[in-house]
Amino acid sequence: MNRLPGCVPWPEEFARRYRELGYWEGSTLFEALVRSERRSPHKLAVVDGARRCSYAELRETTEALAAGFLAHGLRPGDRVVFQLANSLELIAAFFALTRAGAIPIMALPAHRGTEITGRYQNLTCARRGCLAPRGARFRPADRRRRAARRDRERRGAARVHGNRSETAGDRGVKLLETRGLTAFYGDFQALFGIDFDLAPGEIVAVIGANGAGKSTFLRAVAGLNAAPREAIRFEGEPVGGLPAHRLAARGISLVPEGRRLFPSLSVEENLLLGAATLRRGGWNLERVYALFPRLGERRRAAPTQLSGGEQQMAAIGRALMGNPRLLLCDEVSLGLAPRVVKSIYDALPGLVREGLSLVVVEQDIGIALGVAHRVVCLQHGRVALAGAAGGLTREAISRAYFGI
Amino acid sequence: MLLEWLDTVLQGVLLGGLYAMFAMGLALIWGVMRLVNLAHGDFILLGAYAALVLAESTGLHPLAAAPLVIAVLALGGYWLQRGVLNATLGKGLLPPLLVTFGLSIVIQNLLLEGFSADSKALRAETLTTASLRLGESIAVGWFPLGVFVAALVLVLALQLLFSRTALGREMRAASDDPETVQLMGVDQRHTYALAMALALALMALAGVLLGMRTSFSPTDGPAYLLFAFEAVVIGGLGSFWGTFAGGILLGVAQTVGFRIDPGWGLLFGHLVFLAVLLIRPQGLFPRTR
Questions:
Q1: C-alpha angle A356/A359/A361, rounded to 5°?
Q2: Which of A123, A247, A393, B135 gives a 20 to 30 Å CA spacing to B153?
Q3: Contacts of A241 in chain B (CB under 8 A)
Q4: What total of structural domains would you count in chain B?
Q5: Can you give the pTM of this predicted structure?
Q6: CB distance from A44 to chain B under 8 Å?
Q7: Rounded CA gap, A101 and A77, in Å?
């Protein structure tokens, strides 16, 4: 494997500019990765579907990729716009570009060619010595803004307390509501007070960048992450922090990120296991096979023999077999061809007509806007934007997405 | 001469039935919970001693006492899993090893305290001495034959339980992915406890049968753990049929060894085990997918 002799320093101009603006924290992102690796090389750094990657592996990949970039003529200080789905590759590419002294600029999978060109033309980095499109502001920026945000949160918390008696009176109207929902992974706080409502028969899309807390939000609602009891109400009852199997029995079904089919069970056995919630309802094998005919043809196959799209259909079918009232879908489009994604999403509105409610987490904003009644955008564990799917402009979403 | 060897192999196959019974519980626990139970042999002895107490105090035949022994140990297994072993899962291989190692020591010493180090045996009267003549020089004991058939039936039953029933599906799924199975409404702690109860029922039965076949003392557990381990590894961790085959092979190897020289029996068993590890480390019947 090609190893670089040493870390390529960022051009002094950038570092100086960074320092002037007060964003410089003494090292580049890649150096932070190296520090993390030194501290705990085998700790899990990235989870991408079924793929896991430790800090050591991530750095290894990053080194190789950076060497490859430099071999292809990349020079320190170059600006690189890249468009990748939310994946291990995306993260490795980001680190590798900082490693090679270049400036990574992410484009979303949903961005069209013209938008990417626009982004590229907007760049004025070399001249102005900054790392983002014109007019952009760096996030962990000025203290005033942070203080203002803290204030808003405090007011938000107060409002929640005022609301509680009201919502008790509204019982039965909302299928799911969260108030001030927080979530932690050890010391790391992933959610900072999420307020969220879902009416029966509604489809709400939760969007946001990598690490915004989308999956954590779904996991908390499904009972896989700890949550305060009163922070989540389902059918009016406080259910936060209940074990996942009891929430499943109450009618909350999660289609987990990366499908998570059981490899030693056949497709049909996977579906049958979904019925372990023992809930009554209209779902059975025949109906799932009618919804996704491909699954019927492959009922005896092992999940590992299925294509990605078929696996996703099996994961959704398995969740439906439990006759849920609320279906939570975590990135069902991930890694699938657009045609397959369409065939899966085409099945959703029919489900809603039968009284099912849906929360879909999506990276692809186009899909999210197409299928959902309302959109909630998370950013760094907070709700950055919420509104009817038709009433949001791409600019507003873009701002909420990136926090710029 | 040939007939004598045939006889030896036949006796080995029947002994293998008992070893297969030892090994099933171990394979079940490993398969479902990825838990290596170092107290396995001691649980088997616990079954034998429980039957001894019951048989001596009530005058029951050991086989008649077996159902109660099985029920008590199964219940104990359920709560052992829920109360202690579930807490050791998901933190790597070491915590369950340490806890079951500790359990092994505790059980051995309690048995020593309660029953002294003297060898004991379950009195089964004529059942264990009657035999079936198959020819001039070959005879098969009714009891070993019965144990073999019982092991065969139990393997079949376990295989059916795992492949055909909802509980079996839940156990396999909980083994694959303990987090995701909860999303299906399955409390994996309960599923694990049921698997442990089932395993302890098998161990209790194995213990009663062991006690009827041979004498036992409180410190014999680790040896039976070793036999069970060897049978499971020879079989390849894949299926209960593999474990059954592993038990048979181990039984035959030991009996053939004993036939050559009474001091070589156990050694032969271990040598066959090592040979399988060397030549076919994945075992005879590894998991296919």
A1: 145
A2: B135
A3: none
A4: 1
A5: 0.73
A6: no
A7: 6
